[in-house]
Amino acid sequence: MDITLQAPELHYFTLSQRQQQSHEQENMQNPNHQQQQHQLAVDSGGDPSASGKWAEKLLRECAKAISEKDSGKIHHFLWMLNELASPYGDCDQKLAYYFLQAFFCKATESGERCYKTLISVAEKSHSFESARKVTLKFQEVSPWTTFGHVASNGAILEAMEGETKLHIIDISSTYCTQWPMFLEALATRNDETPHLRLTVVVTAGAGGSVVKEIGQRMEKFARLMGVPFEFNVVSGFSRLGELKEEDFGLRDDEAVTVNCIGALRRVGVIERSEFLRMLHRLRPKVVTVVEEEADFTSNMDEFTICSEECLRFYSIFFEMLEESFVPTSNERLMLERECSRSILSVLACEGDGGGECERREKGSQWCERLAGDFSPMSFNDDAVDDVKALLRRYRAGWSLLPAQGDASGLYLTWKDEPVVWASAWKPS
Amino acid sequence: MHGTLELIHPTEQWDCTPINFPVTHHGSERQFAGAELSDFMEHVARQLSDNSENTADGFSMESLSNEAFTPSTGEYRPRKLARTYHHTSGSDGCGHAEDLQWINGTQSENVSTMTYKNNRSNDHDQQGLSLITLLMECAVAISVDNLEEANKMLLELTQVASPYSPSCAERVVAYFSKAMARRVMSSCLGGTMLSPLVQSKSILSAFQAFNTISPFIKFAHFTANQAILEAFHQRDRVHIIDLDIMQGLQWPALFHILATRPDGPPHLRMTAMGTSYEALEETGRQLSGFARRLGLSFEFHPVARKPGEVDPAMIQTRRGETVAVHWLQHSLYDAIGADWKTMRLLELIAPRVITLVEQEMPHSGPFLDRFIGSLHYYSTIFDSLGATLGCEDVNRHKVEHWLLSREISNMLAVGGPTRSGDERFGSWRTELMRRGFAQVPMSGNSMTQAQLILNMFPPTHGYTIQQGDGTLRLGWKENGLYTASAWTSPRLLR
C-alpha cells in the first residue's frame, strides 16, 4: 500500500480531526457510503461530466464554499475537480484544471509562491522565437489582438496627419507586431515620409535579448519601407507605475503618441490615476487604449464575484481559442498556460502585486478614469473600414460594436459578447 | 464489427496438457534506428531501481508543516538545476534544450552513464529526454513523500511538456506529470477513500478509436475468441461470462463463427458484467440483435456488479453447459473489485476455459514500482502510436488523452489503479496457477489469428508477437504489452 499522506494543516481547510475519523470509520463499515459522497453536485449517475457546462457549476459551488470557509465542501469540490480536470481535454476540463489550481492555492494561501514559480518557469522556457511564434499564430487565427492594432493604427495615423517627426511610445505585449503595417501605411500614405521614433517600454521580466532582437527586426523593416526610423527602449524598472516623463527623453519637435495595448491593466490599481496623469504630462497628440473587456478590479475584495467574472471571461476566451485553433495546437496550449497564470494571480494572490495581477477593467470603467485628463476621439471612417476588412479575414463569429452611452470607443465581439475594447483619446 | 477476420475452426481435440514452448520472436524484423524512448527508458529504469534504495536515504524526511509550499525557487533544493528549455511550439520550432547542469558532483557520473546512446540531433527528442529525467526525479520525491519538492518539479513539468509534441517522450511526460500532479493534489486533499468518477462516454469512444488505430485490442479479442472456440468444440450449450463487457466489441466475430459452425450452432448464453446497468442493456440490445440476424439462439444476462463484489448466486450456471470466462485487463477503472473474491468466484464457477489478457506492468506494489513499470509500458505504446500517426492526428490525441492518460492517472494514483486500496495480485497468471488452474497453451490457431491481425497493420511497423510459456504476447519492438493466456478449472480435470 502506498503511503497515504496526512493532509497538511491547511488554513481553514482541513476537515477537523473528529470529522476525518468518522469519515474513515464510515467508509470501512459501509462501502456504499462512498457513493453518497458525490450526491452534492452530481447530475447523472456516476458521470458528472456527462452534462455539458459542468465545470462552471462545480467551480461556482467551490468558490462559494471557499468564501464561506466551509472546509468540508471545499475539500469535496476540489476533489471532484481534481478527478475530472485536464489541461488537455475539452473546455470544461481545461477551465476546471486551471481554476482548480487557483482555488487550491487560494485555500492553502500559497498563491504568491506558486505564481512566482510559474513565472520563473515560463521565463526559462520561452525563447523569443517561441513567444513570437505564438503571437503570430494567434493573430493568424483570431482578431483578438489585431483588432486593437488596426483600430489604434487608424487613430494614430489620423492624429499624426501632417506631422514630420513622430514619436510613438509603445506600452504593449505583442512584440511590436503592430508596427510593420503602421510603417507600411506611413511609407505609402504621405509624399514625404515622416521620421518615426519608436520607444518600447519593457518591464523587467521581458528580458533584454528579446527586445534587442525586436529592435533589430524593426530597424530592418523600416529600412525596407524607406521610413527614417529610430528604436529606443525604456527599461530597468519593475512596475509600469514607476514610469516618469523624464524616462522617455522627449524632444521638442516631435508629435507624441502613447499606445497602450493591454498596458493599463498592468498598472497597479491604486497607481492608475497617477499613471494617466503622467501620460497627460507627456502632451501626446493621441493616446490609444486597448483592453480586454473584463472587470477584475471593482470586485478585488469579493472572492465569489471576482471568481464569477473570471469564469465568465475565461470561458469565453477558452471557447474562442478552441474554435480558432486546431485541437492539437501547441500555440493554443501556451496561450492557455498564460491564462492559467493570470487566473492564479487574480484569484489566489493578495492585492495586485503592483500590477503583476493584471487586474482588468471594462471599457466603461477606463472611460471614467480617462475622462479626468482626456477627451475621447472617435475612430474615423477609414479606421472603421480597416477594422471591418480585418474581421472579414477571420472565421465567422466576430463583429464590431460601437460603445454606447457614456462609454466611447469600439468593441470587438465574439458571438455577440464584447471581448476587446479599443479607444483613442486626446488630452483635454 | 470484425467482419473481415475469421476465427479458425479447431479440427482436433482440445488439448490442455501444458507444453513449454521456447520463446520465439515473430513479426517484422525491422532494424530500429535508435531514438526509441523505450530503449532509453529501460536503461534509466534499471538505474533508478538500483539507485532508489540509496537515494531514498538521501532525502531528508521533511514532515509537512503549516507552510505546505514554503518559499520560492530560491530555496528550491534540487539535485540538479535545469537550465533553459527552449519550448518548441510547432514542428519547426527552433532552440534546443541545453544540457542539464548537475549540482551534486556524484550525479554527473550517473548522467554520463545515462547518456542516451545514439545522441540524436532531434531537438524535440532531446527536450523530451531531459524532461523524462526531471519526471523521474519527481517520482522519487513522491515515493519518499517529499511533496513539496515534487510539487515544484511538477509546476515546471506541467508548464513545459506538451502532449502535442512530435517527441513521444515529451507527450509521455505531459501525461505523466499531469497524473502526478493529480496524485499530489489528492494526497493533500486526503480524500483517498472516495470512489473515483468514471467518464464512461468519452472512455468508450476512445476505446473504439484505440481499436481502430492499434492492434492490441483486436489481438486480445481474437486470440481469446480462438481459445474459447476451441473450448466450445462439439458443445451444444455454451455460456460466456465477460467480466467487463464494455460495448462487447469482441463478441460479434465469435457469434459469427459459432453460428456457422460445421456441427451446427450452439445455444449461447452470455452473462455480461459492467459498470452501469444502462450501458449493459444497450450492449445487450446490440448483441441480441446481431445474434438474431445470425440465427443464433442467444440469451443475455446483464449483471451491473463487479466480479469481486457480486453474490455468486447471481451468476447462474446450468448443468450441462460449457462455461467460458473472459477478462481483458485494463486500468481505466476498477472493473474487478477485490481480486481474491473474484478468484473465489472463478473457482465456484469452474469454467472450462478462462481467457485472460493482462497488461505487462505491475498493477500493485509501491508507487515507484508502478511508476517505472507504467513509464516503460506507456512509453512503448506512445512510441507505437507515434510511429504510425502524425502529431496532429485527432484519433491519436483522443486515445492518448482519454484512454492512456486515464490509465496513467490511475496507475499512479494513491492506492494504484483500483483506487480502493484492495490487495491486488501481482500477476493473475501466477495466481491462477497457485490455485490449481491448469494452463491451456495458446494454440497454433491462436497464433495464426494474432499474425493475421498484425497483417492488418502495415508491415513497416514494429509490432512483435512473442510466444512462450503457453502464452502469446503482443508488444512493440519486443517490449511486451499484452499477454494472452488460457486456463481451465482444476475440477474439470478430474
From TrEMBL, chain A:
<feature type="short sequence motif" description="VHIID">
    <location>
        <begin position="166"/>
        <end position="170"/>
    </location>
</feature>
<dbReference type="Pfam" id="PF03514">
    <property type="entry name" value="GRAS"/>
</dbReference>
<feature type="compositionally biased region" description="Low complexity">
    <location>
        <begin position="27"/>
        <end position="39"/>
    </location>
</feature>
<keyword id="KW-0805">Transcription regulation</keyword>
<feature type="region of interest" description="Disordered">
    <location>
        <begin position="16"/>
        <end position="51"/>
    </location>
</feature>
<feature type="region of interest" description="VHIID">
    <location>
        <begin position="135"/>
        <end position="200"/>
    </location>
</feature>
<comment type="similarity">
    <text>Belongs to the GRAS family.</text>
</comment>
<feature type="region of interest" description="SAW">
    <location>
        <begin position="348"/>
        <end position="426"/>
    </location>
</feature>
<dbReference type="InterPro" id="IPR005202">
    <property type="entry name" value="TF_GRAS"/>
</dbReference>
<protein>
    <recommendedName>
        <fullName>SHORT-ROOT protein</fullName>
    </recommendedName>
</protein>
<keyword id="KW-0804">Transcription</keyword>
From TrEMBL, chain B:
<dbReference type="Pfam" id="PF03514">
    <property type="entry name" value="GRAS"/>
</dbReference>
<feature type="region of interest" description="Leucine repeat II (LRII)">
    <location>
        <begin position="282"/>
        <end position="314"/>
    </location>
</feature>
<keyword id="KW-0805">Transcription regulation</keyword>
<keyword id="KW-0804">Transcription</keyword>
<feature type="region of interest" description="VHIID">
    <location>
        <begin position="207"/>
        <end position="272"/>
    </location>
</feature>
<feature type="short sequence motif" description="VHIID">
    <location>
        <begin position="238"/>
        <end position="242"/>
    </location>
</feature>
<dbReference type="InterPro" id="IPR005202">
    <property type="entry name" value="TF_GRAS"/>
</dbReference>
<feature type="region of interest" description="SAW">
    <location>
        <begin position="413"/>
        <end position="488"/>
    </location>
</feature>
<comment type="similarity">
    <text>Belongs to the GRAS family.</text>
</comment>
<protein>
    <recommendedName>
        <fullName>Protein SCARECROW-like</fullName>
    </recommendedName>
</protein>
